[in-house]
Amino acid sequence: MSLIADHQATFSSDDNSNLLGWTDPRINGGRLLDYTFEDIGEPLNVIISGQSDPFILTDTGFHYYAKSIGFSEECLGLHYGNIHEADLGDGDGRKEEEFLARQYYFPVWGTCWESLAGGNHFRAWKQDGSDANTGAWFLGVSREENSSKNHKIVPNGYNLGRDWLVERATAGSRWKGMWWKADLTWRDDLLDAGNEGVNHGIEQDGRVAILTVRRL
Fold it and tell me: Taking the model in full, what pTM does it have?
């Protein structure tokens, strides 16, 4: 399934982070892989820029926006799986995930069905430390197997989950009377393509989607 045409951008620095709405975590010793375990992680493959609608940069607003693009909180408010950490290079060091959202299938079962049958999900961290207080959300998005396979990521699942989210964000979405549409820029210089250090040894293409979400 094709996405919006690729747009290349130059390497970011601290000087233009205010313009971009995010700071490259590597500048201050962070990285674009989270810490699933001590030595391996999952790609942070979507960044929601701090230049986005200020409401979705808040915790409440971000939960609203996630619902508008087909995600919601975990089934019955219960957490399944490991707590991941990430270092966004913002001075806070490694911090635990702030939000885990799963694909919301339909009103009756919602995210409980994703927990059983598998589907798309993401973990999110906010870049808001004293060294890089951009307000940007960094997401690790993937598609996983069903519960009988312990929610292992499907083959190509990091790319598939990211692309599913991006397509919904760029198509436009709404929740509780608010409408949004995301502008997309692709970066291919933030993550190394391949599976080195990647959880489950699954290949990923190294592309990171930068979304600037506009209120319509």
Answer: 0.87
